[in-house]
Write a structure and sequence with these properties.
Elements: E1 10-16, H1 22-36, E2 40-46, E3 63-67, H2 74-84, E4 89-92, H3 104-112, E5 117-122, H4 133-147, E6 159-162, H5 163-169, H6 179-189, E7 194-199, H7 212-229, H8 231-256, H9 261-291, E8 296-307, E9 310-320, E10 324-325, E11 328-329, H10 343-346, E12 363-364
Helix pairs in contact: 4-7, 6-7, 7-8, 8-9
Length: 369
């Protein structure tokens, strides 16, 4: 296929927690990737399931199963898989059987054309239980208002990302079911090239573990992400309301020739919120600039750590410091090696060693078959 922007490996990450359809889904994904003819790997992150469906999967050089020692959540499983991925593009794919592996090629075609991320947009309205739909519509409406972008589907699990890009946003993504929401908002608010692809879905197999409290967590996560990238969009509406009420009361107080404390509080609090939003936007702008000079992601390394009393094998994406002078990398753009400078000369801090307790272990295991 000529003109392709992506010729590298594709990593398909499938989080799984008690998914009876998992063996069938993995086989269908494997067949589709073989048909596409691209180098690939399939990473199944089993989140401490009680079902033994992951044991039925035949592992080889392209399909690997990692079992979490404890249940950590949907988002944590996706984060683990993205860090373990060795491909140029990572595709996240739910293991409940509602998505069609034949759509993976459509996602990769859009990535070939230069997209930073392609997010699935399910066309079947009742893809969730009825009692969950009002909360999803509310979450979608708030997300669209605060991000100022039309979002057809805020929490579809079928997505494709450039691996290096999505790794930058993992620290701000939720470790529960809100991962889909927070990752989408982070990319949209940072003006990444995000496309939405229409999908036809089937009913899921197995029981959903989403609880009502997860909706509240998702809503709070949306506000937190917006505050991190564009805080004025959150603070301006309440500040405008307070200032409007304060102005009305001030007009009435002037007529009565009596300025009340309530008027002063409304006006002062409205101004405070507004200026806090302005300051927050400046901090967010500085954060965006810092992302351009942060250490670049290095190769994936293998390490063994003790996590919650269970020793397992985990591959960790290390960061390698890049020598910079006056904000620019040292070395030319002809692919030569940068100059060998000390950390003091390059004005970068030495790489920090991650605490052992903060690293989650993912333990691969052999199939019974």
């Amino acid at each position: 296929m000529s003109g392709r922007l992506i010729d590298g490996k594709v990593s398909v990450v499938i989080p799984a927690y008690n998914e009876p359809a998992l063996p069938r889904v993995v086989q269908e994904v494997r067949d589709e990737m073989d048909r596409l003819g691209r180098p690939y790997e399939i990473l199944i992150i089993d989140d401490a399931s009680s079902l033994d469906s992951a044991d039925e999967i035949a592992q080889d050089e392209t399909v690997r199963v990692y079992r979490q020692p404890v249940n950590r959540g949907y988002g944590a499983s996706l984060k683990e898989g993205i860090l373990l991925a060795s491909g140029e593009v990572v595709v996240t794919f739910d293991g409940d059987g509602q998505h069609r592996p034949s759509d993976i090629g459509r996602f990769l075609e859009e990535m070939d054309l230069g997209a930073d991320a392609v997010l699935g947009a399910r066309q079947k309205h009742l893809h969730s239980h009825l009692w969950r739909m009002p909360g999803k519509w509310l979450l979608k409406g708030i997300s669209q208002y605060l991000s100022r972008r039309k979002i057809p589907d805020i929490n579809c699990g079928f997505r494709a990302f450039r691996t290096e890009l999505i790794r930058q946003y993992l620290p701000v993504c939720c470790e529960r079911f809100s991962f889909s929401t927070t990752s989408a908002l982070a990319l949209l608010l940072d003006d990444s090239k995000v496309l939405f692809l229409k999908l036809d879905v089937a009913g899921r197999q197995g029981r959903s573990t989403v609880a009502p409290r997860d909706g509240l967590v998702a809503l709070l996560s949306v506000v937190q992400v917006i505050m991190m990238f564009a805080p004025l969009r959150v603070l301006f509406p309440p500040s405008l309301i307070l200032l409007s009420l304060g102005t009305i009361m001030l007009t009435l107080d002037i007529i009565r020739l009596d300025i009340t404390q309530a008027t002063i509080l409304l006006l002062s609090n409205g101004l405070l919120l507004f200026f806090f939003g302005l300051i927050g936007d400046q901090i967010a702008a500085v954060r965006r600039r810092l992302l351009l000079i942060l250490p670049e992601a290095g190769p994936v390394e293998t390490d063994t750590r003790l996590h919650n009393g269970v020793r397992g094998r985990v591959e960790i994406a290390r960061a390698k410091p890049v020598a910079r002078v006056d904000g620019a990398p040292v070395g030319d753009d002809q692919g030569k090696q940068p100059l060998k400078l000390s950390h003091e000369e390059a004005n970068v801090a030495p790489p920090a060693t991650a605490p052992e307790d903060d690293i989650a272990a993912a333990e691969p295991y052999e199939s019974d078959q």
